[in-house]
Amino acid sequence: MSRGLTLLFAIAGGTAVANLYWAQPLLDLVARDLHASTSLAGWLVTATQVGYAAGALLLVPLGDVLDRRRLIPGMVLCSALALIACALAPSIGALLAAVTLLGLTTVSGQLLTPLAGDLADDTNRGQVVGTVVSGLLIGILTSRTISGFIADAAGWRTIYLVAAAAAVVFALLLRRAIPPLPAKAHLPYPQLLLSVWHVIRQVRAVRWTLFLGAIAFGVFTMFWTALTFLLSAEPFSYSVSVIGLFGLIGLAGALAAQRAGRLHDRGRSMSATGWGWAAIVVAFVVAAFADRSVAGIIVAVVLLDIAVQGVNILNQTRLFAVAPQARSRLNTAFVTCNFIGGAAGSAAASVLWSAGGWRAVSLTGAGLGCVALLVWALGRRGPLLSERSG
After folding, report:
1. pTM value?
2. Which of 250, 254, 277, 306 is nearest to 372 (CA)?
């Protein structure tokens, strides 16, 4: 796993995962162009996420039984076709169908991450996986800004055409760069999907790690969903474009992912996870008292992003060490549980905001962080390390 190949995986994965977020800042433009209501256009984001969740569950496990030198470029080309369909969609219904297919086929980033774990050796696996994951995070954080700039200059359809061209280029590069690898397992497809559950049921460390991952992603999405409410209201009353710039502050989390991977390689994964959860609690406490301070919000954003992304990569790298022959299936479980936690966090943000505003959201996040910190303390010398549930 050379530095060049690691960088290619990171950029290709980031470009792929960005497909999930192109539409977010364009909803009003799309609604006007396709003569649809804004509420109906809002379903474009939901449809993309539903497709992505289905792809993570149904397609990512194939990385353990198929030649990924063919599978990954093939998936990238399929996403290019879906992007072209988005650009040419004549109606909101056609666009909803196209973005659902886009979400389904854009899981190449989640195939590249376990592949990076397979190609890396034991001494630098954490660093390699952390670099690839940081590329995915950068793709998520910059996609909304890039989409807005291109749409302002050339229309909303152009971003999908540009992304389709990029997908074709990366498909060709990945086809040449990925070495031929034998399948790690030979299972019929139904048995392959069922084996994801078997790994979760049989390995206690997996269950505990997935629980912590779901909480981390849940409090992360809860914070960012509520932050939009906070910044759009008094005393800030920021525009959508200004609110979007706060996402760029989260780029610090991408750097944290790479550094966290190095801590794993040095045997400090478990202790670093504890410090990460402590930082999450502190971030929410800072946020609770920053409802009228931009500086305080920025401090909370940076601290929370660094902590959550660090915990995320440490969890993911430890999972890859549990069952090397099933890394794609473990990644399926990890992504699916994170998705469930994220959906719950977004829903909780709306409820908590209505009930008690920003302070209720912040205190709930701090409380959930304390729960996770307790789980980590109970499991760090036992369940989080043991391989079998016994």
Report:
1. 0.78
2. 277
